[in-house]
Amino acid sequence: MENSGRTASGDDVIARTGALLELDLLDCPICRHPLASPIYQCVEGHIICSSCRTMNERCPSCFSFIGNTRSRIMERLVETVFFPCRNAKHGCTEKLSRGKELVDHEKECDGFVCHCPVPFCDYAGFDKNLYDHFTVSHKANYSSSFRTGQYVDVDVPVHMKETMLILQEHNYGPLVILQAFKGPDGLYVTANLLAAPFAPRGWKFGYDLICWRGDVEFTDTIDEMNRIQRVSFKTPGVKSMFIAYPFLDESLVVKMEIRIRELRYEDEEEDDDGEEDEE
Ligand SMILES: [Zn+2]
Ligand SMILES: [Zn+2]
Ligand SMILES: [Zn+2]
Ligand SMILES: [Zn+2]
């Protein structure tokens, strides 16, 4: 890469660029956090970040006094080195100078990385890549298909402490994870959205879940499913359906019906409660 610029006399110059092989050099040698201006140095030239300097009167490397001497060359160096986003391995091409910009970008970028829900598969990638990976590698063995807006039967195994079913919309719609957990008093059932790469972030998905135990109907309606980046096996809180143990008979599966609904944010203004736009 070449950076062009101009000298004081107006001539075009091409700044020379190269590679820095030891990126650790750009970390504070004391706390190992990325260096950022202001960077200080002891009289022997050892560098130290500003937060380590406030905690150390003397240089941790040579015990000589640390004053207010800044390491201008390190400050300059740190500003001119561009780092790849930590999600480069997932396909992010952003390169930013280290500091707030990179931190902010990585925070946002991390929000798109999803982990494969299949047990023992450690694939992680941006939601689109995860979706493709799941479709190619696991779809045949691990997923049940559904159509948005239509009820589909699901058999939820209840003989284990926790179970997970992966539901995939038949036409590139979202991947939904349906989970059942055995709590102290009963079964909790919940569904979360893992990846919906073909639905803009502004869209939300809700669901209706129904099951019958004898004459009793259990239902759960969720207007907006949580978006998750990895499957968690923590017992869910509010957004879950609860079936007390007396209602579970000896069967190993509970037959349920689930309907995933797609709702765009702009539809929210409507006065009616949306009963007509289904089916
Ligand atoms: Zn430090
Ligand atoms: Zn020193
Ligand atoms: Zn990124
Ligand atoms: Zn996988």
TrEMBL record:
It catalyses: S-ubiquitinyl-[E2 ubiquitin-conjugating enzyme]-L-cysteine + [acceptor protein]-L-lysine = [E2 ubiquitin-conjugating enzyme]-L-cysteine + N(6)-ubiquitinyl-[acceptor protein]-L-lysine. Keywords: Metal-binding, Transferase, Ubl conjugation pathway, Zinc, Zinc-finger. The keyword tRNA-binding does not apply. It comes from the Eukaryota. Pathway: Protein modification; protein ubiquitination. Belongs to the SINA (Seven in absentia) family. E3 ubiquitin-protein ligase that mediates ubiquitination and subsequent proteasomal degradation of target proteins. E3 ubiquitin ligases accept ubiquitin from an E2 ubiquitin-conjugating enzyme in the form of a thioester and then directly transfers the ubiquitin to targeted substrates. It probably triggers the ubiquitin-mediated degradation of different substrates. This is RING-type E3 ubiquitin transferase. It comes from Capsella rubella.
